[in-house]
Amino acid sequence: MADFKIAPSILSADFARLGEEVDNVLKSGADIVHFDVMDNHYVPNLTIGPLVCDALRSHGVTADIDVHLMVKPVDRIIPDFAKAGATYITFHPEGSEHIDRSLSLVRESGCKSGLVFNPATPLSCLEHVMDKVDMILLMSVNPGFGGQSFIPGTLDKLRQARKMIDDSGFDIRLEIDGGVKVDNIREIAEAGADTFVAGSAIFGAANDSDANVYDTVVGAMRDELSKA
Ligand code: DX5
Ligand code: ZN
């Protein structure tokens, strides 16, 4: 079975209790903390920066933190996120004037690098930088907000990206982000994804009476993945 990883997006967490939310979701068996950075310029929303990443590390989070930069430009902020404890730093090709340079900057800063593709952005620019990416992230919604519906055409794009990765022989994770739920995660895995971002499907399951409510949804996702 593939090495599947579940990456809850803290965009849908309760920010007033962020440390506790991240602890709970990791206790429930999630693998990676997906950290959505929005700048109200590249995308029409504004979220969190390096200070919050650093705060999660100081709180004691040791899991991988997957920083998804929806910002433009990217170079100025990459070293700050590396210092703040990011494991992965991924960015959109539209956010960088010099994609090769930005990817190298991520690795030189000590992090794993990745490129993110919007639903209408072709994968073609990967061709010349396959040796410089540790992660390819396909957006299955337009970036900017949680809680949107999975765009079905992303399944074909996943198959295309999976083939590119397998043909390259490089060790590259294939991540999917947007509208991932218990009822579609299996077909997404079968199309080639190995890393699954889910925001509203996981944190939306919270209620005040049961702090371990994430066990149910993360467990259901794992069950579905075990059938893929
Ligand atoms: C959207 C973000 C996603 C978002 C996913 O721009 O990149 O990570 O949190 O949320 P859901 O899982 O609710 O679609
Ligand atoms: Zn994201």
Bound molecules: D-xylitol-5-phosphate, zinc ion
CATH class: Alpha Beta
- Helix count, per DSSP? 8
The tally of structural domains comes to: 1
Low-confidence segments? none
The CATH topology comes to: TIM Barrel
Reported for the largest beta sheet, the result is:
8 strands, parallel
- Radius of gyration from the CA trace? 16 Å
CATH architecture: Alpha-Beta Barrel
Quick one: CATH superfamily?
Aldolase class I
Strand order in the largest sheet: 1-8-7-6-5-4-3-2
Strand share of the residues? 15-25%
Structural class: alpha/beta
* Shape annotation: globular
Give the % helix.
Answer: 25-40%
What is the N-to-C succession of helices and strands? EHEHEHEHEEHEHEHH
Number of E-type strands: 8
How does this model look, in words?
With 228 residues, the protein is α/β, with parallel strands linked by helices. It has a single domain (5-225), classed as TIM Barrel. The protein has helices spanning 18-27, 50-59, 78-83, 99-108, 154-168, 185-190, 200-203, 213-226; strands at residues 5-8, 32-38, 64-70, 88-91, 112-117, 135-139, 173-177, 195-198. The chain has an eight-stranded parallel sheet with strand order 1-8-7-6-5-4-3-2. The longest helix is centred in the last third of the chain and has 15 residues, at 154-168. The model has no long low-confidence stretch (mean pLDDT 96). Bound molecules: D-xylitol-5-phosphate and zinc ion.
